[in-house]
Amino acid sequence: MDLTIRKFRESDLDPLAGLLSDPAVMKYLEPPFSRQKTAAFLRKAGLADPPRIYAAEEEGRFIGYVIFHKYDEDGMEIGWVLSPDCWGRGCASALTAELIGRAAACGKAAVIECDPEQEASRRIAREFGFAYEGRVDGLDVFRKKE
Question: Residue ranges of the alpha helices (H) in 54-143?
């Protein structure tokens, strides 16, 4: 599995719009995005300085994005939103391992926020030894201290 995390480019709008308009992808996030809403999200989160999200690729093909930004004084939020063809193949786990390492390199804990019903994210948090911290604004929060 050849996964790459990179900065977003304006040319990523089409594949990102395809991803964020998919009801299955957005089930635990928000209602599916329009192209216009995706473009605004890309500008605000992906093309910002510093970015809050980064494009994820497998063998050069856009497969979604990862979340990596300051959560609080001690932690960096990590996460992923991936194309359904990546589900169940270990992509999220591989990206999680990379993001945990990046947070540790910043001297920060990794933090995962997820919908309480999003079992895949909860499973990955458990798999990587994250501790459950509670619910904030309706989302479950897990933290891994290195």
Answer: 91-105, 119-127
State how far the Cα of 87 lies from the Cα of 84, in Å rounded to an integer. 5
* Structural domains of the chain, ranges and CATH numbers in brackets: 3-111 (3.40.630.30)
Determine the Cα angle at 40 with ends 65 and 51, to 5°: 45
Alpha helices (runs of H) in 1-146, residue ranges in sequence order: 13-20, 23-26, 35-41, 91-105, 119-127
Q: What would you report as the CA-atom Rg of the chain, rounded to the nearest whole angstrom?
A: 14
pLDDT 10s digits, 111-143: 999 999 999 999 999 999 999 999 999 999 999
* Rounded Cα distance, 32 and 24, in Å: 9
Residues of the chain by 3-state class (helix, strand, coil), percent to 5: 35, 35, 30
The CA-CA-CA angle for residues 62, 63, 68, to 5°, reads 100
pTM of the model: 0.94
